[in-house]
Amino acid sequence: MANTNGPQVTAARQIAALDEVDQRLLDELVADGRLSMRALAERVHISRAGCYTRVERLQRDGIITGHTAIVDARRLGCTLLAHVYPKGPFLPRDHRLSHRRRPSGR
Description:
31% of the residues lie in helices and 0% in strands. The chain has 3 helices and no strands. The longest helix has 13 residues, at 48-60. It is mostly helical. The relative contact order is 0.10.
């Protein structure tokens, strides 16, 4: 019988072991992803070189997967925003659904 206690781990997807410094780095980056390495290192109380090395490792290991801007759609004139990811054979392989529809009159 399989163990159902705790997270499932497969060979393709390993759970990362983070120490306290890594966790503090992630907390700071989640709060403000635009922090410079210098400011990040100061907030976590480590050297800039150590900060840079750790952030690079977190990116390489797939823990940090990207950097995202949060956009206020209403300020852009969008009253409805939808992300649609259809699956199936009904779309051409190279078709892109990344366009945005603005209200008429803009």
